[in-house]
Structure to design on (704 residues):
C-alpha cells in the first residue's frame, strides 16, 4: 500500500521553534486508556452499582453514588492538566517535549539518537484519524518520547523533522534529496496465509484446551476425557490398556486440533500482516501492515544491530524464510508486548531465493560493501566437533533409556535407541551446518537445531567480542567466539560460534576485535 | 604476606594504551577478608538459627551430628572458596588496553577473554567497598549497550589503576560519526 507512505513534503521546512500540542482527541483516548487499564476495578464497581440499584432503589450505599463522580472528576482534571501542559517543539537538532505543571520536565531528544519511530493505530485511532507515536532512543527503558495521540498530519511533520534533522541539513532544507521510495517487499494474502500455515505453533493452545476441558469436567456432557488422559495407573498403564480404536481416536482428535490451529494461525497472520509492505527510502526502511491495528514503523537502516534469516523446517521445505532484525530499541518494546507480537520481524515471509537481494537492499548506505549471502566463503567448525557432540549425546541417550526402564520395561532399549538416533542426527546437523563467514565488514554466522538461522552482524555494531574456553573446550583444543549486540532479544539467534579449532578462534577473535574498534 | 608490596606501576605506553597487567596483589587479601566476612555473617545467622532451633526442640544427638556435618560441608566449602578464590582470581585475571580497546581475561575453569572497543563504552563506574577503600583498591565497571555484557565489572584493581583505565578508556571515546549515526555505538 504505497499510498500509506508518509509524503516527503519537499520544499516545506517543518522545523521551527513553535510549541505544538497533541491532538484534542488525546483527552478521550487518555481517559479511555486509563479506564481500560483500571477495568479490573471499574467493571466490578459498575456491576455492583447496577445490581444494588435493582435490589433496593433507595436506602443503600447507592445513595452516596454521587461521590463516585469525585474520582471521575479528578481523572478528568488530571488528564486536562496533562493535555494542556504537554507540548512539543522541533528544534534544530532535537525534538523537545515539555510536560508537567508542578514538576516541569523538558526532555530533549536529538534527532540523530532516535532509533526508530513507531506509529500505532488501533481500530478507534483509525476511525478518528489519529495515531500513537513512539520515539525510541534505545536506552532500554522503553519509548523515551511517546506522543499520544497525534493527527496524521502532525505525524508526517514529525517524521520529516526527524529525517531532515538526522541529516543535519535543516537550514538548507529547501529541497531534500529524498530518493524515490522503492517497495522491497509487498505480501499478498496468499503468502500471508502460507506464513500462518507454516509457522503456526499450536501446542500452547492445545495444552490450554486440554487444561480447560479437564477443569470443565466434560464427562457431565457425556464425553469422557479420561480415555485420553493418563489414568490412575500412570501414562504407560493407560496406554498399555488402550485399544487400537482409542489410539485412532486420539490421532484423529490431535490431528483435527492441529489442523484447526494451523487454519486459525493462517487467518491470524493474514489479519495481522494485512497489506504488508516494506519500503526503502534513503537511509530508512518503512514497514506498514495490519488490518485491525495498523502499524507503521520507520527504521533507520544504520540502526539495525543484527539481522537474522530463519527457516523453520516447514518454511525451509516451502522455500521460504523469515527475516528478523534487532534494533537497540526493540528489547524494551518486546518486554512489554507479547513475544508473539514480533515487533522485530522485518519480513514475515520471503522466498528463500530473494533473501540475498533483500539483505543487500536493507544494508545501510555508505557502510561499505553489503554482504552477498549467495557467495559466502563459509568456514566450518573443527572436524572433530561431530565426535565431541556425539560422545555427549550418546551418554545422554543411554541415560534416557535407563531412566525410562522403570516405566517402559522392555521398551526402554527401543526408547534409548530412538533417542540415540535423533541425537546423533542432531549432532551431525549441528556440526555440519554451524559455520561463520566474513563479507566485507560483516560477520555472518549460521547454525541449526531444527530451524536454520543465518545471522549477520556488522563489525561496527558489535558491542563486546569475547573468546570462551570451557574445560571441555580446553580438552579438545577448541574455543567459542561470541559477539554481543545491542537489543539482542532473549531466545533470539545470537552470534555464538562454538567448536572452533583453537587457532581459528584466536584469529577470529583478533580480527573481530580489530574490525569492531575501527 | 610479603608479596603485598606497592601496586604495580601503570606502565603507560605513549598512545594512551595500558600494558597487559595483573590485578593488584592486595586484591588477594582484600578478597579473602570479604569472603571470610560473608562466611562469618552467614555462619552467625544460619548457625545461630539452627542451633536455637535444635536447643528449643530438644533435638536428639543424631540431629546435632547431622547438622554439624552439613554445616561443616557448607561452611568449609565457603571458607575454602573464600581463601583460595581470590588467589585464583589474581592468577587468572589480566587486563590490557590497546588500540582496539579493553581486553579483559578472567575465569579459572571457564576462561573468558572479553574485548570492548573504546567507542562502545557508554559509561564507566569506579566503585570502592569498605575493604577496597582500606586497601586502596577499586572496582571498574564498564557499561556497554550490549545485552549479555551490558556491564563488565573488573574487581581488584588498585584505585589508581582503575582511574588510569577509566581515563584512558574515555579519552578517545566515541569518535564524531556521520549524521546517520554510523559512528555511534548503536
Amino acid at each position: 500500500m504505497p499510498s500509506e507512505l508518509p509524503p516527503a513534503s519537499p520544499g516545506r521546512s517543518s522545523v521551527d521553534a513553535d510549541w505544538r500540542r497533541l491532538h484534542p482527541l488525546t483527552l478521550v483516548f487518555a481517559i479511555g486508556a486509563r479506564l481500560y487499564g483500571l477495568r479490573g476495578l471499574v467493571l466490578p464497581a459498575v456491576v455492583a452499582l447496577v445490581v444494588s440499584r435493582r435490589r433496593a432503589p433507595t436506602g443503600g450505599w447507592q445513595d452516596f453514588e454521587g461521590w463516585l463522580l469525585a474520582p471521575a472528576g479528578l481523572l478528568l482534571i488530571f488528564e486536562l492538566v496533562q493535555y494542556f501542559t504537554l507540548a512539543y517543539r522541533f528544534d534544530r537538532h532535537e525534538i523537545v517535549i515539555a510536560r508537567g505543571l508542578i514538576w516541569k520536565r523538558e526532555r530533549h531528544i536529538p534527532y540523530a539518537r532516535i532509533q526508530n519511530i513507531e506509529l500505532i493505530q488501533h481500530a478507534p485511532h483509525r476511525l478518528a484519524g489519529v495515531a500513537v507515536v513512539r520515539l525510541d532512543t534505545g536506552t532500554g527503558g522503553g519509548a523515551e518520547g511517546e506522543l499520544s495521540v497525534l493527527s496524521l498530519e502532525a505525524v508526517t511533520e514529525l517524521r520529516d523533522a526527524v529525517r531532515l534533522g538526522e541529516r543535519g541539513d535543516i537550514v538548507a532544507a529547501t529541497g531534500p534529496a529524498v530518493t524515490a521510495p522503492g517497495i522491497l517487499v509487498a505480501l499478498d494474502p496468499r503468502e500471508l496465509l502460507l506464513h500462518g500455515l507454516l509457522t503456526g505453533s499450536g501446542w500452547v493452545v492445545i495444552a490450554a484446551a486440554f487444561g480447560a476441558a479437564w477443569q470443565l469436567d466434560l464427562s457431565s456432557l457425556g464425553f469422557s476425557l479420561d480415555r485420553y488422559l493418563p489414568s490412575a495407573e500412570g501414562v504407560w498403564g493407560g496406554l498399555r490398556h488402550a485399544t487400537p480404536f482409542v489410539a485412532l481416536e486420539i490421532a484423529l482428535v490431535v490431528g483435527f486440533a492441529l489442523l484447526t490451529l494451523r487454519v486459525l494461525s493462517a487467518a491470524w497472520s493474514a489479519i495481522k500482516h494485512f497489506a504488508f509492505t516494506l519500503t526503502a527510502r534513503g537511509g530508512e526502511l518503512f514497514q506498514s501492515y495490519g488490518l485491525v491495528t495498523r502499524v507503521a514503523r520507520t527504521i533507520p537502516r544504520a540502526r539495525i544491530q543484527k539481522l537474522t534469516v530463519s527457516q523453520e523446517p516447514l518454511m525451509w521445505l516451502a522455500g521460504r524464510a523469515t527475516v528478523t532484525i534487532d534494533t537497540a530499541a526493540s528489547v524494551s518494546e518486546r518486554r512489554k508486548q507479547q513475544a508473539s507480537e514480533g515487533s522485530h520481524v522485518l519480513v514475515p515471509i520471503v522466498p528463500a531465493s530473494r533473501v540475498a537481494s533483500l539483505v543487500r537492499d536493507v544494508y545501510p548506505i555508505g557502510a561499505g560493501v553489503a554482504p552477498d549471502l549467495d557467495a559466502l566463503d563459509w568456514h566450518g567448525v573443527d572436524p572433530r566437533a561431530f565426535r565431541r557432540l556425539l560422545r555427549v549425546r550418546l551418554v545422554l541417550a543411554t541415560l534416557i533409556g535407563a531412566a525410562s526402564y522403570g516405566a517402559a520395561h522392555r521398551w526402554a532399549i527401543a526408547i534409548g535407541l530412538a533417542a540415540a538416533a535423533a541425537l546423533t542426527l542432531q549432532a551431525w546437523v549441528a556440526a555440519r551446518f554451524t559455520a561463520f563467514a566474513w563479507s566485507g565488514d560483516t560477520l555472518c554466522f549460521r547454525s541449526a537445531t531444527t530451524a536454520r538461522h543465518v545471522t549477520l552482524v556488522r563489525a561496527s555494531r558489535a558491542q563486546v567480542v569475547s573468546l570462551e574456553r570451557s574445560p571441555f573446550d580446553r580438552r579438545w583444543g577448541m574455543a567459542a567466539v561470541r559477539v554481543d549486540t545491542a537489543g539482542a532479544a532473549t531466545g533470539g539467534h545470537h552470534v555464538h560460534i562454538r567448536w572452533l579449532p583453537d587457532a581459528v578462534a584466536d584469529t577470529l577473535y583478533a580480527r573481530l576485535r580489530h574490525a569492531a574498534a575501527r | 604476606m610479603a608479596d603485598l608490596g606497592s601496586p604495580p606501576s601503570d606502565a603507560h605506553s605513549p598512545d594512551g594504551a595500558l600494558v597487559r597487567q595483573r590485578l593488584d596483589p592486595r586484591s588477594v587479601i582484600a578478597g579473602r577478608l570479604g569472603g571470610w566476612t560473608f562466611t562469618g555473617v552467614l555462619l552467625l545467622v544460619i548457625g545461630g538459627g539452627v542451633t536455637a532451633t535444635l536447643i528449643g526442640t530438644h533435638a536428639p544427638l543424631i540431629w546435632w551430628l547431622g547438622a554439624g556435618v552439613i554445616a561443616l560441608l557448607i561452611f568449609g566449602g565457603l571458607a575454602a572458596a573464600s581463601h583460595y578464590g581470590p588467589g585464583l582470581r589474581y592468577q587468572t585475571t589480566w587486563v590490557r588496553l590497546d588500540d582496539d580497546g579493553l581486553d579483559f581475561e578472567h575465569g579459572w575453569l571457564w576462561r573468558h577473554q572479553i574485548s570492548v572497543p573504546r567507542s562502545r563504552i557508554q559509561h564507566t563506574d569506579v566503585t570502592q567497598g569498605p575493604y577496597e577503600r582500606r586497601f586502596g583498591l577499586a572496582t571498574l565497571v564498564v557499561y556497554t549497550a550490549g545485552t549479555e555484557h551490558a556491564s563488565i565489572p573488573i574487581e581488584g584493581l588498585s584505585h589508581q589503576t582503575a582511574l588510569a583505565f577509566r581515563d584512558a578508556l574515555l579519552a578517545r571515546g566515541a569518535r564524531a560519526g556521520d549524521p546517520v549515526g554510523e559512528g555511534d555505538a548503536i
Remarks:
- The first helix of chain B runs from residue 26 to 56.
- The two ends of chain B are 46 Å apart (CA to CA).
- The longest strand of chain B covers residues 137-144.
- The beta strands of chain B are 18-21, 94-98, 101-106, 111-116, 121-127, 137-144, 151-158.
